[in-house]
Design a protein that fits this description.
Strand 1 and strand 2 form a beta hairpin. This protein has three helices and two strands, in the order ααββα. By secondary structure, the chain is mainly α. The radius of gyration is 29 Å and the shape is elongated. A two-stranded antiparallel ribbon has the order 1-2. The model has no long low-confidence stretch (mean pLDDT 90). It folds into two domains: 46 residues, no CATH class; 34 residues.
């Protein structure tokens, strides 16, 4: 297929580009689907599901429960992970111990 690119208008070139992008995406999606079917069939042949072998879909971790609470404002909490909030730093600087801020259940 010989195309004289120099004779095409900008609109024609953009149409070709759009069609080519769509064709490439469609091709990749078909190949991905075929590969997935082959891998799932092989896993089933060996007595497994694909999710068993791959650990299933990765999900975001669960949120940790708060461990510490602001003494005057119980809405301000901290899990004990990550950077210390300013109110924790202020409490420690004023002489409180971290244990004093523990949430008692």
């Amino acid at each position: 297929m010989d195309i004289n690119w120099d004779t095409l208008s900008l609109d024609e070139l953009k149409d070709i580009q759009k069609a080519a992008t769509k064709a490439v995406n469609s091709y990749e999606a078909r190949k991905r689907k075929e590969a997935l079917a082959v891998v799932e069939a092989k896993a089933a042949e060996m007595g497994f599901s694909l999710s068993e072998l791959t650990g299933g879909a990765k999900t975001k971790g669960t949120k940790s429960a708060p461990k510490y609470c602001h003494p005057e404002n119980p809405a301000k909490t901290w899990t004990g992970k990550g950077r210390q909030p300013k109110w924790i730093k202020d409490a420690l600087a004023s002489g409180k111990a971290l244990e004093d801020l523990l949430i008692v259940t």
